[in-house]
Structure formats: C-alpha cells, structure tokens
# Entry
Amino acid sequence: MGTFKIEGGIQLKGDVTPQGAKNEALQILCAVLLTPEKVTISNIPDIIDVNKLITLLGNLGVKIQKNGPGSITFQADEVNVGYLETEAFKKEGGSLRGSIMIVGPLLARFGKGYIPKPGGDKIGRRRLDTHFEGFINLGAKFRYEREDHFYGVETKTRLKGAHMLLDEASVTGTANIVMAAVLAEGTTTVYNAACEPYLQQLCKMLNSMGAKITGVGSNLLTIEGVENLGGCEHRILPDMIEIGSWIGLAAMTRSEITIKNVSWENLGVIPSVFRKLGITLEKKGDDIYIPSHTKGYTVKTDIDGSILTIADAPWPGFTPDLLSIVLVVATQANGDVLIHQKMFESRLFFVDKLIDMGAKIMLCDPHRAVVMGHNFQSQLKATTMSSPDIRAGISLLIAALSAKGTSTIQNIEQIDRGYERIDERLRALGANIVRV
# Structure
C-alpha cells in the first residue's frame, strides 16, 4: 500500500487543468460494447478505476488501440460473452463498481449480462435494484446466485420497449437502462431518470452512434429502439468533482489557483455552493480563478439568519461526491455549517480523523455533521491517517496540505482510484508531497 507524506502550511500558486470525468468515463467505456464498429474516446482519465474497466473490456475481447495520452479507440467486434461466467471475471468485475454498467449493453446486444456483486467505496448501501428492475421491465429474466453473489439477466428474444418510473434517480441505473433500451424493439420511456451531465454526455454519444433518444437533460427520457448502432468519436467532459476539489484546496491553503477549461455550463450549482462558504470564484472565459484568501472566508447564513445547511440532492442539486470536500473546507471558515449527507450512511465517518487534527465537528448522526469553523485562528495539526474512500481521501489530503507539520496518509490507492497523478500536479503548484 502506498503512502503520501505531506508538509502542510504551504501556499500554492499556478494553473491546473482538470482530468476527464471519472463518472462519465465509466459509462462511456461500457457503451463501446453496443457496436461492432470503432469508437474513439478522448480525454480519458488515467486513474485506477477507469484503467480497471479498460482491462475488463480487453478481457472480454474488445480490441483496444491507444492513440496517445487520454485517447483510445475501441472495437467490440469479437466479444467473448463466455468470459462473463469465468472465475477470473467474478474476481475482476467484483473489484470495480462501475463494471455494473457492462450489463445493459451486453444484454441488449448479446442477450445476456452478468456481474458479480460490485466493489467500490465503502460508503454505505448502494442498491442495484433500479438496474435490474429496468432490465426486467424490458423483458429480461433475472438470475441471482446467492452463494457467489452473482447477478445476471438473460433474454432469448430482442428486448421490448416499456414505460418505467424509476424508484430512484440513479445515475448508473439510468445509464444502464438507456444502454439496454437503445437496441430494444419499440419505444421506452424512463421517468425520474437521472439527468447529470455524465448521463447527458452518454445520451449525446449514443445519438451520434445512431440511437434515438429525446428529453436529454430532463428527468423524462424517450428512447426509440433501433436495429444497430455505429461507431463514433467522443470527448469526455472535465471532471466536475475534481474541479470542486481544486476549489476547496485553494481556499483551505489560501492559494492563488486558476483551474483551466472547466466547462462552466456543466458545473451546475457547484460554484454557488462554494460561494455560500464565502469563497471567491471568478469566471475568466472558461476558467475559474481563485484568489488567495489571506483574510479567510465567511459563511453566508440563510436569509432568516439560521445556520447554513449544505445537502446533497439529485442533479441539478449538489452532488454528494463533493460533500466531503465542503466539510473539510468548512473547518477553516468563519462561521458554522450543517453538512447533510442524505444518500450514504457511512460517508461522514472520516470526520474523526479531522477531529484528531483539531477540527471542531459534531457528528449528529450518520448523515449529519455540524462544522464550527476556526477562521484560520487555529491551524489543523499534522497526523497519520488512512484514506477510507476516494472523496474522503482527497478531503484528508486537503486537510494535510493546510495543516501545521508533516502528515502521513496511508492507503492512497483509494485516492489514485479517482485522481490522476495528484501528487505530481500538486508539486507543480508548489506543494511538498512525496509518494512513498
């Protein structure tokens, strides 16, 4: 297991370009299974989770041609569906939650799709019901092997379009259902669909391949099934979660940083939420400029003067992936903030590590924490800690960069799962961070 050693308390400065969006990449890569023709994808982030999925596609028989940094051409013209029932696949697929999204494309094109119980972050229960109920609505038969935790769907005929109302606006569930429905016979309507930019990008890519999807960007998608799809070229958006992470890092370390080419129109409420914390963000073209917050940042209370509450919600609400970053940034704000993590019951359990560093946080229950900001009157203290998941890991890294002394973060593979060469990019800004 790798370790970061970080000397904190150093102001950073410079420009940083965000990586391609991890959550979009996991969907887009699975979609290459829908066609035997070539699909070229650019701006692919070089991170563990994405690389695992690319390896999985290769083991399924997808041809992979690397064109240069972040650009790969895929061709799924000789897919080995039999690999899905091997022990090697059960081990490989179980290590990556994003692998669940191969099921929809495989079911639509080959009539079967299997997946072991997926892995990923230990942040609470993450249901798969939405995915499989959608497939069943399209005419597939469900299969579950309890001893092996092995899920599957099968059909001997072409899938049939159906109307469905999702019980939750699951991003990956919506993506999986859409990828299955594009090759189904007839029309499918998906109400309460997720409408995150990742999902919009997937639908735009599928339409460029010949799919007929309308309502993109809304919570009601209409998919008219087609016989087959062709190849395409697609560029992945910059990662809005990484963009939010850089904003938080700049504020906590009181650094002057410019985040380049952020695709402002796809950031939703992210800039406004950081502004509620008192953080100054300036839009310069398609860049975000964050000046050095030498005088700190003051939390804006609600209109009636009550404590500011920041909660996650389905898009266009605030993404749950940034609540950990907001929480750590609030530890040095001037004011108090209530963080309400509605979606996952274990995501706030890293706050004990921040409390050890001197942060003033009261964990009310598994979903809520009150943060009483220091206003930089008391610097966090360096410590040794372990990264429990991707977003908590980057939050602890931000805390360590602002702390007094040298911190150690263990289990940094969790951070590498979602952030590309984070230590190299931090050193380019002036950080003192070493990978051991």
About this structure: Confidence is low (pLDDT under 50) at residues 120-125. The chain has 14 helices and 23 strands. Residues 116 and 150 are 4 Å apart (CA to CA). The longest helix spans residues 240-252.
